[in-house]
Amino acid sequence: MTEVASGVEVVVPADDTILTREALDFVGRLHRELNPTRQELLERRHARQLELDAGALPGFLPETRHIRDGDWRVAPAPADLHDRRCEITGPVDRKMMINAFNSGARVFMADFEDANSPTWTNVVEGQRNVSDAVRRTISLDTPEKSYRLNDEIATMLIRPRGWHLPERHVLVDGEPISGSLFDFGLVMFRNARELLERGSGPYFYLPKLESHLEARLWAQAFAFAEEELGVPAGSIRCTVLIETILAAFEMEEILYELRDYGCALNAGRWDYIFSVIKKFRSREDWVLPDRVQVTMTVPFMRAYTELLVRSCHRRGAHAIGGMAAFIPSRKDAAVNDVALAKVREDKQRESGDGFDGTWVAHPDLVPVATEVFDGVLGERPNQVARLREDVVPDEAALLSIPDTPGEVTEAGLRTNVSVGVRYLDAWLHGVGAAAIDNLMEDAATAEISRSQVWQWVRSGRFDAALVRDEIAAVEAGEEAKELFTQLALAPQLVEFLTLPAYTHLE
To answer: Which residue in 94, 159, 388, 461 is the catalytic one?
Structure first.
């Protein structure tokens, strides 16, 4: 253990060209300033869960009605974020980053969160890769191929880890630093000025928020970082992933808290469904069917996505649609035809609903997503002016979970176990974005997989013995099988699998 800055210790060997004394001193100050509030908000999450377990339901907040009724707009988007019709996501892996930048997408979300297994090597090398990308020096030579940036590349947004995740390799005053503040702080310290000098700026995607108070903490982090680093106020821009059921009731409030940072919103899928299972885990009459049947068109998902577009556009913010995770096959044209037709249908729904852009996970999907949005947008960069005043905020619609059509099947159980275990196996070996069954999967898939199994066992759909048999049949390492078993059959639903799984990483 080495103290490299005042009160900041790195407990493992680290590259001091990335983790300089000055950089660690900055993230240490950031953590000291904001961590007490972060801890209070995590306690608030726990208290809220207990209320939900006792039968409470979320709703639009009466105390923030003045915000929803007020006349305000978010700060305008900078020039390189006016047009976000296709965004590609991926981990902060060097080769995947270069491919994403060169994909033809307008935006690339470089992910320190769900698509990144947070080994110390991945976290530190990810920071190096981000800095090299900002300076356009990122490259890679392998025996098969050389990777270089094209002249035109996607605009980069960074997704730091969620508020709940620690970075245990760095201690501030003896306690692990917040993973969120470590990722964000290092990116800001190393790159903010460089980005601004190059005509762009420090742009971020914010995950897993559950309330506008958690958004307010990010606003405080942004203001603190800008002041400490001497960059102009409002230089940062952010997009919040609305991927929890509780955040869906506070979308305008979240935009309001981050209005000085030109906030936009994104509609997730797997994490949102996982949140529904987790938050309403005590309601056995709210059991969801096989996850493949919980599409974006089922009632509660439809209500949330349409309200997201309405909330964004009435405040001058972009609304970004969900993920197309399909990985095209260069060997099976029939599989491609079916999958690409579904991707096209999904993107047509989003663009028709008023979304300004959408997500893909593979470069080969950029053309089809772009083509669909081109058909709606034409020469316009977005459709923020489409206000969707026909959408009426409806608490009951957001909570119409029992109206979800479909059924729970053994095939669904088998899929959840197989994909969940195999993803965990990849994650434990340092791979956060794993190709499984022609889909690019991240931690959100494992979360919904294990939580659905837990919900189905708890509600009596399946017994633990069958689950154990299915786990045993998966071709994967024993460590992943044991961890999935513990999570899926735990007496209480574990809040995030990445917390216990993190203890298995180096």
So the answer is: 159
Query: In angstroms, rounded to a whole number, what is the distance separating the alpha carbons of residues 30 and 218?
Result: 11
| Statement to judge: residues 234 and 98 lie in one domain | yes
Task: Kindly list the averaged pLDDT for each block of 10 residues, start to end, along the chain of length 506.
Answer: 79 94 97 98 98 98 98 98 98 98 98 98 98 98 96 98 98 97 98 98 98 98 98 98 98 98 95 98 95 96 98 98 91 88 96 98 96 98 98 98 98 98 98 95 97 98 98 98 98 97 96
Is 21 labeled as catalytic in the residue annotation? no
For residue 131, give both structure tokens: 């800095």
Tokens 């707009």 found at: 73
One domain for residues 67 and 88: yes
Mark whether 72 and 184 lie in a shared domain. Answer: yes
Identify the active-site residue in 80, 353, 425, 442.
Answer: 442
DSSP structure class, residue 227: H
Name the residue type at position 419: V
Do residues 356 and 476 share a domain?
no
Do 93 and 152 lie in one domain? The reply is yes
Residue 402 belongs to a domain: no
- Residue 159 among the catalytic residues: yes
